[in-house]
Amino acid sequence: MKRLEGKVCLITGAGQGIGEATALKFAREGAVVVACDLKPEQVEAVAQACRAAGAQAEGHVMDVTDRAQVDAVVAGVLAAHGRIDVLVNNAGITQDARLQKMTLEQFDRVIDVNLRGVFHCSQAVSNQMVSQGSGVILNASSVVGLYGNFGQTNYAATKFGVIGFTKTWARELSPKGVRVNAVAPGFIKTPMIATVPDKVLDDLAQKVPLKRLGQAEEIANAYAFLASDEASYITGAVLEVDGGLTL
Ligand code: NAP
Known about the structure:
Family: Belongs to the short-chain dehydrogenases/reductases (SDR) family.
Number of helices: 8
Structural class: alpha/beta
Oligomer: single chain
Number of domains: 1
Keywords: Fatty acid biosynthesis, Fatty acid metabolism, Lipid biosynthesis, Lipid metabolism, NADP, Oxidoreductase
CATH architecture: 3-Layer(aba) Sandwich
Radius of gyration: 17 Å
Order of helices and strands: EHEHEHEHEHHEEHEHE
Function: Catalyzes the NADPH-dependent reduction of beta-ketoacyl-ACP substrates to beta-hydroxyacyl-ACP products, the first reductive step in the elongation cycle of fatty acid biosynthesis.
GO biological process, one term: fatty acid biosynthetic process
Helix content: 40-55%
Distance between the termini: 34 Å
Organism: Malikia granosa
Strand order of the largest sheet: 3-2-1-4-5-6-9
Bound molecules: NADP nicotinamide-adenine-dinucleotide phosphate
Low-confidence stretches: none
CATH superfamily: NAD(P)-binding Rossmann-like Domain
């Protein structure tokens, strides 16, 4: 049985990497996929791939830092489908530097996308989910949001912050039928880590008990589970999907 049959699922940062894999996984699970990202050609290609997998799907340009754009996309989805069942707050960026070197621009930009963007999208769908009496919000944290990381002051703060959102919104919204959870991926092979030299990636892989980096599809599988009714008693949780990295 398809686990997300007919569920209207909005995924941010769906143009590549984990977001793209999640859109395709959700499509195969029967979802109505709303794939959102910055580049029109990317969202259209992902929506097309979802349709090729047999799903109803549409692509939207949506910058999560632009509240007016987020509100317009949510309004459009509601006009077309009448509901939003799942929001995956996947869009995220890095701009790394050590504390002593980090510019205010680097700090602000990462906070803007990874933290304010998650707030924008979640707030934009929250009234609808509460009035439906059902919904799922899934947030992209990271192992860096559990343990910190050298050179990632801004990113770590956002990924810890997303866990704070998750637990707060789970308290506020779960009594109204809306589940809120986070996924904390380890090192996953996506364009986000494409600039990391192979030697560094090989060393990282050796630190993982499963002795390899993760695939975007392995994070998508976790999102699909948490989005589905199989996770009906799970809220406020942070699911680590990291090959045992944080053991
Ligand atoms: P990715 O390959 O860089 O994909 C992220 C997508 O988000 C890109 O398409 C990017 O567009 C888009 N995006 C950036 N800024 C945006 C904005 N303001 N509004 C809307 N979309 C925006 O990253 P990924 O590796 O798939 O990561 C996805 C999520 O998982 C992120 O939140 C990341 O922090 C988290 N995560 C990843 C890893 C990992 O190892 N890969 C580990 C832990 C957590 P552009 O490319 O055009 O900028």
